[in-house]
């Protein structure tokens, strides 16, 4: 079985670490506090060569606290692209900001002309999202931000390691935000961080972080359980449906953590976050740091295979800049649902990020609660109906990538 998402970054060592926290009693005292969180922050400081790195329980908390740290006042406007995750709009709303949605280009990133049109005297922040790891138009957006005295937060939930003009994504804005969620570049199941060189912003972020509660024991245990359960569940996924059933049961009885909860989709707050990043998950992230370069290289190699084989006349492929590293290889295609179904029959689960301007789009999505109104961003609405993600994670072999590309070509 080939997966696009579904915890694609798990290594055996991560499973061992998770099991050691779950089953070794002397580790139970180190679930929440310990020096791993500081080690993660140090790693980020060194990797990005920044003065400050502060961890959080998730990217969504990190983003909320980044916005709060700018001393945003109720009703101040935060410019953010449409074609994003619902937790982004929740983070803006919960920080007291008002999301203003900016339309996108065919590279799934913010359209600078629409950005200029949407700036008002209430604008305070621009969030630059590097969707699927494709770099946004950094220089132009930052120029607009400077002209209007706006703070720039770079949402790097989909990228760690891509450089533009020799400078890492995440270090271009005033604050860089990262996610270590299940389907991200590196994962500890849940986790997030902010980086900055601004002393004042950093002080405020650290002050906000200090006030946060520890992550709950239940949340930590659920996210640790994700590692052995997904590792085994995926391996046995279609062996008499054992893995599929095990994963569904684990989810149903609350043994595993979820990426996004029903309540969040209804734009309601949950009681276990915002919170601090737990020591146990930080330990897993330290393992993942050692695999970052390997996973990113692999993503580039698999992207190159798709790029070479996919027929360019009927689909639109990502136009990659030199050294760009994608998280998912996303194409524009008529009727992506058709291809999702065709692939499923061949035991390939393709990805649907983002099938809505604010995703995930299911019956629980409270679109009015996000502040998005139909017609705000027509291009984003159109692209959401055309995008299809192909997997490039570490488990995808060159042969599988060729097979996926040919499957798509043959059904165009
Ligand atoms: C673009 C973007 N920003 C931020 C986040 C939030 O990250 P997290 O899941 O760690 O809260 C996500 C999550 O999927 C995302 O896709």
TrEMBL record:
Judging by the UniProt lineage, the source's domain of life is Bacteria
Question: What GO molecular functions are on record for this protein?
Answer: pyridoxal phosphate binding; transaminase activity
Residues bearing PTM N6-(pyridoxal phosphate)lysine: 184
The record's InterPro entries line, in alphabetical order, gives: DegT/StrS_aminotransferase, PyrdxlP-dep_Trfase, PyrdxlP-dep_Trfase_major, PyrdxlP-dep_Trfase_small
* Annotated SUPFAM superfamilies: PLP-dependent transferases
Looking up Pfam families in the UniProt record yields:
DegT_DnrJ_EryC1
Catalytic residues, per the record, are 184
What keywords sit in the KW lines? Answer: Pyridoxal phosphate
Task: Give me any GO biological process, just one.
Answer: polysaccharide biosynthetic process
The entry's family comment says: Belongs to the DegT/DnrJ/EryC1 family.
What name appears for this protein in its UniProt entry? Aminotransferase
Protein's organism: Candidatus Magasanikbacteria bacterium CG10_big_fil_rev_8_21_14_0_10_36_16
């Amino acid at each position: 079985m080939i997966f696009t998402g579904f915890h694609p970054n798990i290594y055996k060592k991560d499973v061992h670490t998770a099991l050691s926290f779950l089953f070794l009693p002397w580790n139970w005292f180190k679930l929440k506090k310990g020096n791993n969180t500081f080690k993660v922050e140090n790693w980020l400081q060194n990797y990005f060569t920044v003065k400050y790195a502060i961890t959080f329980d998730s990217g969504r908390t990190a983003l909320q606290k980044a916005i709060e740290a700018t001393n945003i006042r109720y009703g101040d406007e935060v410019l953010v692209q449409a074609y994003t995750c619902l937790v982004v709009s929740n983070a803006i709303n919960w920080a007291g900001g008002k999301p203003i949605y900016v339309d996108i280009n065919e590279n799934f990133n913010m359209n600078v002309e629409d950005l200029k049109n949407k700036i008002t005297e209430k604008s305070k922040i621009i969030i630059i999202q590097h969707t699927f790891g494709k770099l946004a138009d950094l220089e132009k957006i930052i120029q607009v931000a400077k002209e209007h005295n706006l703070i720039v937060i770079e949402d790097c939930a989909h990228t760690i390691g891509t450089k533009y003009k020799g400078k890492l994504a995440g270090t271009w804005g005033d604050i860089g935000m990262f996610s270590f969620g299940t389907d991200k570049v590196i994962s500890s199941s849940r986790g997030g961080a902010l980086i900055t060189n601004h002393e004042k912003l950093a002080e405020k972020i650290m002050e906000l972080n200090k006030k946060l509660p520890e992550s709950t024991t239940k949340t930590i245990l659920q996210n640790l359980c994700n590692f052995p359960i997904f590792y085994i569940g995926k391996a046995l996924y279609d062996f008499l449906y054992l893995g599929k059933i095990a994963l569904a049961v684990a989810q149903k009885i609350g043994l595993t953590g979820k990426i996004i909860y029903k309540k969040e989709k209804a734009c309601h707050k949950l009681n276990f976050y915002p919170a601090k990043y737990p020591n146990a998950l930080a330990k897993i992230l330290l393992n993942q740091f050692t695999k970052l370069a390997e996973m990113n290289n692999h993503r580039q190699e698999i992207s190159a295979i798709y790029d070479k084989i996919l027929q360019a006349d009927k689909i639109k492929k990502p136009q990659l800049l030199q050294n760009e590293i994608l998280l998912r290889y996303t194409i524009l295609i008529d009727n992506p649902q058709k291809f999702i179904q065709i692939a499923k029959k061949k035991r390939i689960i393709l990805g649907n990020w983002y099938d809505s301007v604010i995703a995930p789009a299911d019956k629980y999505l409270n679109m009015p609660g996000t502040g998005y109104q139909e017609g705000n961003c027509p291009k984003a609405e159109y692209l959401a109906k055309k995008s299809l993600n192909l997997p490039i994670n570490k488990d995808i072999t060159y042969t599988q990538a060729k097979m996926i590309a040919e499957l798509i070509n043959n059904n165009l």
